[in-house]
Known about the structure:
Blueprint (H helix, E strand, L loop, with lengths): L1 E7 L6 H15 L6 H21 L6 E7 L3 E7 L8 E4 L11 H13 L2 E7 L2 E9 L10
Antiparallel strand pairs: 1-2, 2-3, 3-6, 4-5, 5-6
Helix pairs in contact: 1-2, 2-3
Amino acid sequence: xxxxxxxxxxxxxxxxxxxxxxxxxxxxxxxxxxxxxxxxxxxxxxxxxxxxxxxxxxxxxxxxxxxxxxxxxxxxxxxxxxxxxxxxxxxxxxxxxxxxxxxxxxxxxxxxxxxxxxxxxxxxxxxxxxxxxxxxxxxxxxxxx
Length: 145
């Protein structure tokens, strides 16, 4: 299992870089070409959400992106350090949507749930993580750099 970890300061201009890195790594490990736009968009939404949470809560900690090649899938975790309710893992984003929450935040989560079939939201006192995964195209996949 190979992993690439990216950390960037919570500034909107760094989201594009995270998207490009995620797409490049996804292509290299063997994610189907037809899905790369979905990877790019989902990572952009998740990173934009994390940046927005950091900025609105006055946090200077970096946003964390972890890209992992597993045996049959490629996963991306986007983490923030904004404390949330300790709910553990919530399968699917629909269960994570808060009716009293931020509308912009909910829109980002709704976009991600439309782009990614396998997604979960993890929240706790140390922050939150959106974990997304995609299947690999087959044995022709590459290895992480």
